[in-house]
Request: fold
Amino acid sequence: MHTTTVRSPRAFGPTRKSFIRRNLPYFLIAPSVVMLLALIAYPLLFALRSSFYFWNLQIGPEPLQFVGFENYVQAFNAFDFRAALTNTLILSMLGTTLEFTFGLAIALILLKALPGMNVVRALLILPTTIAPIVVGFLFRYLYDPGGGLLSWLLQSLWLPVPAEGILGSPSTALAAILLVDIWQWTPFFAIVLYASLLAVPDEILEAARLDRASAWTILMRIKLPLIKRTAIIIVMLRFMQIFNTFDTVLVLTRGGPGTSTRTLGYSLYEQGLVNFNIGLVSAMTWITVLIVNVIVALYVFFAFRNEEW
Amino acid sequence: MTIDIGNMSRRDLLKSASVAALVAGAGSLAIPRRGAAQDANTVRVLSVEDPFFFSMKALVPEYEKETGIKVELESLSYDALQSRLVSAFVAKTSDADVIVVDQMWLGQYLDNGWIIPLNDFIAKDNEFDLSDFIPEVLYSSNIWRGQVGTLPVAAYAQGVMYRKDVFDELGIAAPPTETSEDWTWTKYVDTLKSMEGKSFGGKPLFPTVVCGSQPSPIVHMFTQVSASHGANWFKSFPAAPWDFSPQLTSPAWIKSVEVYRQLYKLSPPEAINYVWFDAGTRFAKGDIGMFYWWTPYFYLIKNSGYMTGKKSDVMEKYATAALPKAEGVPQTVSLGGWSLGIPSSSERQEAGYAFIKWATSKATQKKMALWPDLNYQFSDFARVSLYQDEEVKAIYPYLDVQYAMMKQGNGKVTRPPVPGYTAIESVLGLTLNQLLTGSEEPKTGLERANSLFESILKGNLMIPYQKDSYADTLDGAKALIAKK
Reply:
C-alpha cells in the first residue's frame, strides 16, 4: 500500500511564523544595535583601553607601554585642562540657561500676531544654518578693536572696552565666546519652543483668561508645564553641544589669552590632532564623557522625576 | 629604538582609524580622505597655503604641458596639513606623492619612516646641483641624521622691517643692514621707545607689533629673540650625545621673555591674539614703526592684506634691516620654511622626485619670483644663485639683507625638529601667551613650563634618550653637500 505522508502546514508553519512574529522587534532593531555598537561602543571601549597606555603617534604607530592611570593623572595635573573644564562648565551652564530664556521670550513674541512675523520666523532660523567656523570669522571682525562693529557699539555707549580688545582680555574673552553661541543658538530654542507653544490648546488658555489669570500665571502654570518635555529635551541637547565647543574658540582665540577661553573641545583637538597624544586624549575623552553623563543623568533624574521618561 | 610601521596589521590599522575617528568626533574636526584610485599619469601634491603655493600653482600648467603629467595640487591650513599627514601616515593611506614638510616635522617624519630619504635620487641624478643651495638652509630644514629628507621650496629667515618716512620725520637713525656688535636687542628696544607715544600722519603710532597667539605663532616669533640670546631648549642637541633635559630656566630664557614682554608693551594691545599674518598685515596698515618677522613679510607687506594683491599704505615707504643680536652672544637667526618630500606610501616616487626637482629648481624658483600677480609675491629662495640674479634683485631689492640673515641661520637650534615637538611647543606657546599679560614673573612661568617639558619628554621616552644620537653639525651638512 502506498501511503503518502503529507505534513500539515500547521506542523511547522505556525511555529516558524510565531518565532518571527515573536522576535520581530529584535530583528528590526538589530541593525541599529549593531551600528551603534560599531560606531559608539567599540571606539569608546577602545579609547578606554588606550587611555591606560602611552601612545603618541609622533613617536610610534603602536601603544608603547601600559601606564595605568598615568594619563588621567597627567590630564588632571595639567593646569590648562582644569581651566578648560571650568570654562566649559561655565559656557555650558550659562549658555544653555541664557539661550533658553531668550529663546522662550522670542517664542512668546512670535505667538503674537504682529505684522511681519512670517519674515521674522524665516530670518530667525538663519544663524543656526551657518557653520560655526564661519560664525567665528564673522565675529572676529565684529570684535576687532580697530573698528569692529561690536567694539565700536560698546564704545559709543560709553561702555568700557579693554585696550587689548574684547577677545584679548581674559576678563571679557570668555563672555565674547558665550555671546557668539547665544547669537547662533538662541533662534534654535525660539523656533522649537514656538512650535511647542502652538500646540497648547486654545480652550485652556481661553478658560484661564476668563478666570482672569495674569499672563505670568498663564505662562508659569499652563504654557511651561505643557511644553516641559520638549524644553527638557532641547536644553539637554544644547548642553551637550555646548560642552563640545571648539570651532569658535579655534577661530577667535585659540584658547587664549592664557587659558581664559580654553574649552575641553579645544584641548581634545590640541592633544589629539596637534600633539597626537592618543593615550592622553583618550583619558581626556573619557573624563569628558563621564562628566557629561553624570550631569545629564542628574538633570534627567530631577527633570523627569514625576514624569514618564 | 626604531619603530617600523611596515609591520602594522590590518587590525591595528582599524584600531588607529577608530581612535582617529573618536578624536575627530571629540574635536569636531573631520579629516578629509580621498578614496579614488590614482591615475598613473598624475602626481598628487599636498601643500600648505603659504605664499609660495600661489606662484607655484600658477606655474603648474606649464609643468603639465612640458611633461604631460597631470598635477593635482591641494592646499590646507597649517594645522590641518599636519593632522591630515600624520593620520594618513599612521594608517598608511597617504594619498599624496609629494608633501610639503615644515622644518620642525623633519626628524619625526624621517625617524618614523613616513617619508623616504632623497639621497639615492640625488646621487643618480647627474643634472642635480646640490651645491647651489645655501648650506645653512639644507642643514636646518632638510638634513636629518646625514640624510637629505626633503628639498626646500620656500626658505625663510627672519629680519627687520621699518618705516623710512617715520624714522626720517622723527629723526631716528635707520637700523643697519648688516649685523654688528652695536645693533643689539637693547638698542632695538631703545629705538622703539623713541617712537613711544608719538603720532605720524595725524594718527597714533605704535613702535612695533608682535605675535601673541598661542601656540605656534608666538613661539615662531619669540624663539628668534631666545636664539639670539643663546637660549637652548635642551641640554645637548643637535650636538651628540643627545640629552633632551629641558633648559627653560636658564638666564637666557628669562632675559628673552623680558625682552619679548617689552616688545609687547610697545605693540598694539590686541596683538595678544595676533597670528602670523595679523602682525604682518598690521604693519602694512601703516601705524607701526618697526618690527621683525619671517622674511616672506619683506614682500607680503606690499599688500594691504594677506595675499590680497591690493597695494598697502607702506608699499613704497619701508626698508629692511638686519636682526639685532644680544650683547656678547654670536647671532643665530631663526631659519624655517617649507620643503618637499616623498611619502614612503607613494607608488609614484620617481614622478614625485621629478616634481620636487622641478619645483625647487633655479628656473622654476626664478619664474615664481617673476610671477607678477599679487605685486610680486615670492622671494623665499634657498639657492645662492638667485640671491645674485640681477633680474630678481631688481624686483626684490632687499635680497642682500635676506641672504646675510640666511647665512647666520640655524633652525635646529631655534626650533628643534625633534619627534614630539608640537607637544612641547603647545606648553611653551601657552606659557609665553600668559607671560605677555604680565600677571606672572618670567622665572615662575618658565619653571612651570620646564617641569611640564620634562614630564612630556619623559612620557615620550625622550628622557633618557633611547635611540642613537647623531652629531648633527653644519660642517657635516656641508660635507654631505660636497659629496654630490
